[in-house]
Predict the structure.
Amino acid sequence: MKCSIPKGTRDFLPAEMARRNYIFDTIREVFKAFAFEPIETPSLENLSTLMGKYGEEGDKLLFKVLNSGDFMDGVDFNQDYRKVAPKICERGLRYDLTVPFARFVVQHRDQISFPFRRYQLQPVWRADRPQKGRYREFYQCDADMIGSTSLLHELELVQMIDAVFQKLDIEVTVKINNRKVLAGIAEHIGAPDKLVDITVAIDKLDKIGLGNVRKELQERGLADDQIAALDPVFNLSGDANAKLEQLSVLFANNEVGTKGVEELKELFGYISQVQPKCHIELDLTLARGLNYYTGAIFEVKAHNVSIGSICGGGRYDNLTGIFGMPDVSGVGISFGADRIYDVLTELDKFPATLGQSAQVLFINFGADTMPYCIRQAAQLRAAGISTLIYPDSAKMKKQMDFANKSHIPYVVFVGESEIADGTVTVKDMAAGTQQTLSMNDLLVMLQK
Amino acid sequence: MKCSIPKGTRDFLPAEMARRNYIFDTIREVFKAFAFEPIETPSLENLSTLMGKYGEEGDKLLFKVLNSGDFMDGVDFNQDYRKVAPKICERGLRYDLTVPFARFVVQHRDQISFPFRRYQLQPVWRADRPQKGRYREFYQCDADMIGSTSLLHELELVQMIDAVFQKLDIEVTVKINNRKVLAGIAEHIGAPDKLVDITVAIDKLDKIGLGNVRKELQERGLADDQIAALDPVFNLSGDANAKLEQLSVLFANNEVGTKGVEELKELFGYISQVQPKCHIELDLTLARGLNYYTGAIFEVKAHNVSIGSICGGGRYDNLTGIFGMPDVSGVGISFGADRIYDVLTELDKFPATLGQSAQVLFINFGADTMPYCIRQAAQLRAAGISTLIYPDSAKMKKQMDFANKSHIPYVVFVGESEIADGTVTVKDMAAGTQQTLSMNDLLVMLQK
């Protein structure tokens, strides 16, 4: 029988688990310092909760779970498979953490005090074509604050991004924009209906250059004078504050644009109070999740690696509207654990001591010394020190090979004299030195 | 639109998460002290990996995931739904952690050093009829050691059970038996082929009494003299060692029975070295997982509550055989987190301080004092202290109500004088007292 797992899924061995937990623990620690509270939602949601929330493409990528029992009973199979699927599957696997969170807020509104901030670290599933860095099962690490429009919340997201990547020792740039500024630009050039076309095109500025952006705008049906009217936006200069001043002038009679600039000014003002270590950039070409976000938008890229965005988020004004609870404004971010893993690997920034399991191995010299070893090992374990007794009285070489292969730093030998004296002989595997100690002294040494 | 989740699944709110994490963290801490290493396997497995591993009933309870794309292509729907299901579903949701672990060991045999000990805390899914305490998605907490037949491993399981329930402050009894002793009993009464019938019947001794057990044995086809031959087993007296001595005599010419008794003697000998706090009991009527276990078996029950087994496990000699890797002996246990949750709730043993999120709330008096508040809050957060700034300059009463409702122990007030002096005024919400402190003094107070 061949052993394999479904395409796009992964087993995690202990060394990978240690690295992944290092990322999750770091993110969780920061979420907690900012007083976010954990929640979990079921892996299985009713398909009616999920369908239609991620666009037509998303509906296709939902994993659907076959109904139990006679799923065929009363179903007409002489129709398109897309019509049959919802008849034989009432449930699907979670596709992201956002829609389940919206459902959660509406369902538990009476048990939550607003403003409510939650974090959620759980896997999601997408029937996407697997490829390098893209999986069918992967974790999302989301933090959201809902029930307030205060821009202090946007500041907190920036602080959290800064704290996470400082702790992980990754240099990053946080790009910030505001959806209202993008709307203001579309209005400014007299093409408010072309907002999506404009943002899709100028989003490519870095990659294809200004000439090609202009060409694309033309192809997307913008008039030459409209495209020319974009020039002042491309020609903004100076730091974020200087750019925002120039935009203020440009947006003199432009309500939505002015609102966007004011929000960005307030946010950048707050940010200046906390002096983040990461690089902060006002990027007017940043467009992410246009149909979804309504205010500030964020995207984080790591320096010195060519890996895409490792964190992103923004303000949405109507998350729970789809479930019949309107006017709940929120703002949130999502850390991409798999990409952060790739960045840390490429930059060789994982701490060297991660994933060490046993700290101490007792060599097994057979039944005579075992009772003594069992008692001493129990003492170490009670003190939280990860301790092994080699299970069989195998040859010394085999036991030492195991210690080496498992990177166990201390090996303990117990013979008649140790038992008589109430001591243990400990070998420091890295230094190659050996000493005989009381259990108290060993405990003190190991707890250092 | 009605918000709901599938039957048998659950949302976990922050208070429940805190309690669940208390259980998971306790178990994980003990697993780590015994040098178990974490692994994770995918939620989705190939159905071929899962089918036929849990009996006919288990096959029915597997959640099957519909193939992506045109799942109907080439499938004949004019047959029984049980035949159609595997044609339209190649994958299923994990049903337990044991079969995926066996698959993992075989698949990664070259990356693992044996003896290998892993722990795994992940959800599993079963399409069981939901009822009180039985869910369709629930966590299992498993620890297994494979690649050695040493009974030191059985001892370690007992030590871990003892440590977990001591830390959780739950009084428990660990019942221990050995599958070989059960086989020995069947052989002793001349009915080795009736092993299952005998164990099923005597497993009920506690509930239905000796008379009814005898009746059931009769119904299950045992002869009167065979049933009478069981009497010495029911009449064993004294502590575990005394009972084992009596069994030794009974099993004088009984190889498998003698082996079982020897294993139990060795294990009880080891246990006497570590003097566990929990109650340990040799229970010859304990039968669990008969088709699966081959040596020691364990079951844990909590005192003073009528909740079933909260932990169980045993020795299996051929876990990976189903995947073509024979002769790998292992031993493991599984903690039932949901039942442990119920026990802690019923005994009121959850620590009172669990689930407190924010430790400090800065009252929002508007834009003038905000920059100062932002800077001071950043200091607390950098020190890992969970800190909130109320996002809006709402009425004082509303902000204080929020603090009370959220059980935040300290509320900070900042006005002109605090800013001038570089201090904060802190109200201890429980004591009702208020004092003005430097940030350093506040930090010291909060880190106590």
User: Anything to note?
Assistant: The longest helix of chain B spans residues 14-33.
